[in-house]
From TrEMBL:
Protein name listed in UniProt: F173A methyltransferase
Record keywords, A-Z: Methyltransferase, S-adenosyl-L-methionine, Transferase
UniProt organism field: Trogon melanurus
Superkingdom classification of source: Eukaryota
Name of the coding gene: Fam173a
GO (cellular component) term, any one: mitochondrion
Alphabetical list of InterPro entries matching this protein: FAM173A/B, SAM-dependent_MTases_sf
Biological processes per GO annotation: methylation; regulation of mitochondrial ATP synthesis coupled proton transport
Keyword ATP-binding: no
GO terms, molecular function: protein-lysine N-methyltransferase activity
Amino acid sequence: MEPEEPEETAGAAWGRLGEEPLGGRGLLELAVASGVVAWATWAALLMPGFRRVPLRLQVPYQPSGPRQVANALALLRGRAGKTVDLGSGDGRLVIEAYKQGLRPAVGYELNPWLLCLSNYRAWKAGYHGKVSFLKKDLWKVNLSDCHNVIVFLAPSVKPPLATKLLAELPDEARVVAGRFPFSSWTPTSTLGQGLEQVWAYDMKEVRRAAQSEAQSNGS
């Protein structure tokens, strides 16, 4: 029997991939390949914006799901004033905030690739020039003029971020946290369950609770 041509051998192998179990070695090779692809994506697209941020304050990009976005915006319904998303990723929360009438709507993001994606999404939605995505470090932005703050960040950054928000936000501001709550704050309201749960915090109430606790500890 004559040997198969290289192209036929490769094609036969791909054909058998869905029919036969991969086995231990095959699974290992697949895992390694997947890991290389994931690392390459991270290095090319997501790492650039993190290089200037201290390790403990870095937050990997994870897009918000439709229900998470809907729940977050539901807790801001009927409000007014400047709305910002800290670490705005692909921009979907900012765009939805603008659709809901929260204006100006601004996203702060360091990663240039995600900023490009955000601006593309805004253009596709017909909001080019109406929403803003700024390449700024959220730790260095002054938030004193913000009345609605959206925070979909990791638990590790919540304690220092809570300190920043307390120091800068006006009493009328509301903070909406997704995925993880501020453990030291008591939410005004919450919506959803599991990964889709979001929490709303009114700064006036947060400050009042902080002052009461400080007085109790001082007495």
